[in-house]
Design a protein that fits this description.
Elements: E1 8-11, H1 21-36, E2 40-45, H2 57-67, E3 77-78, H3 83-91, E4 96-99, H4 103-108, E5 125-129, H5 131-135, E6 139-142, E7 146-149, E8 160-164, H6 172-182, E9 187-191, H7 195-208, E10 214-218, E11 221-222, H8 239-242, H9 245-255, H10 262-278, H11 288-304, E12 315-316
Parallel strand pairs: 1-2, 2-3, 9-10, 11-12
Antiparallel strand pairs: 4-5, 5-8, 6-7
Helix pairs in contact: 1-9, 1-11, 6-7, 9-10, 9-11
The protein binds glutamic acid (GLU).
Residues 12-14, 46, 176, 188, 190, 194 line the site of glutamic acid (GLU).
Length: 317
């Protein structure tokens, strides 16, 4: 169906491994927000951190999203295919500077590099001084959490932001701004762990002369047992090992308060328990009937979903 509004949303995973529950919740949340606005939903692959996101992970991520009923309305943008665009954006930042400091040196003393106007060299980072631009954003209004104050996130906001690391990897905060702008994203729906980064991104939007999108953050899904996010680092099982695609959708719709499916909470907890004990879990195979049920349920959810009613508390499983 052709979009009936200028709303453009996206899901932008970093394919460091297989899809986990928390990411699937964000993927469905951003998809449903786009549907609720009659807009366009895009998928973008944020794989610039090559050591963490090897290329073979990208088709797996896209295939898992497809099994969940989620596809990009336009060709999937893969960030490693656009590195020159991020480097070009750096040249437009008047307060960008080269920095030779190692992490160890930065712990010992302030960085002197901004005043030194260093010549290009190997193993050199590029940073930008965001202090003035950050001061222009004492708060932003989040689509879910309301007004968010910068002073509450001060500890996480280093104003001398890395744009390119000394190993030549382009930083997430730069690439996300360049791509959300070029793809005309009108609202960014993503996990609450990126709330503080939003201030850095708003500052970058200003310095690059771009208009910022709206932001709407969704709560993280945490393992009750450990209090950790469901992620590769925390050794969580991949979502589609734990649940079938249809079960995954039903669980995410329950967590997003679109439909009440309390039995799915019990089911996922039982399978997680099994995984903890045996280190393995295997969801039952998907029947063709389930595939059509998933697509019908997703359409039903899209018609019912209200972006004004989103969960705010961390979701414990
Ligand atoms: N690529 C980021 C991640 O997987 C998300 C970026 C965003 O949505 O702004 O955590």
């Amino acid at each position: 169906m052709a979009p009936s509004s200028p709303y453009r949303g996206r899901f932008a995973p970093s394919p460091s491994g297989r899809l986990h529950l928390g990411s699937a919740l964000i993927a469905y949340g951003s998809y449903l927000c786009a549907q609720a606005h009659g807009g366009t939903f895009l998928i973008r692959i944020e794989d610039l951190d090559r050591p963490r996101c090897p290329p073979e992970n990208t088709p797996v991520m896209l295939s898992e999203l497809k099994q969940l009923g989620l596809e990009s309305a336009e060709p999937v943008l893969i960030q490693t295919q656009h590195e020159s665009d991020y480097l070009e954006a750096i040249t437009k930042l008047p307060t960008a500077y080269r920095c030779n400091c190692t992490r160890a040196l930065l712990k010992e003393r302030p960085c002197p590099c901004q005043a030194l106007h260093l010549k290009p060299a190997a193993h050199q980072a590029i940073r930008v001084d965001l202090s003035t631009a950050l001061a222009a954003h004492p708060y932003f209004v989040d689509g879910n959490f309301g007004t968010i104050y910068q002073q509450d996130y001060q500890a996480e906001l280093a104003p001398n932001l890395v744009l390119k690391r000394s190993d030549d990897i382009i930083a997430y905060n730069l690439a996300v701004v360049v791509d959300d702008q070029r793809q005309g994203i009108s609202e960014v729906v993503r996990g609450a762990d990126l709330i503080s980064a939003t201030f850095l991104q708003l500052a970058l939007y200003d310095l690059l002369g771009y208009r910022a999108p709206k932001f709407c953050h969704l709560p993280l899904v945490l393992e009750q047992h450990s209090g950790h996010k469901f992620s590769k680092q925390n050794h969580a099982p991949a979502l589609l090992d734990l649940l079938t695609p249809l079960e995954s959708l039903r669980l995410c719709l329950h967590l997003l308060q679109v439909i009440a499916e309390p039995t799915l909470i019990t089911l996922v907890q039982e399978r997680l328990e099994k995984f903890r004990h045996s280190g393995q879990v295997q969801a039952p195979p998907t029947s063709p009937h389930e595939v059509s049920e998933l697509s019908a349920l997703l359409s039903y959810a899209a018609a019912r979903f209200d972006p004004a009613v989103l969960p705010r508390q961390a979701l414990m499983l």
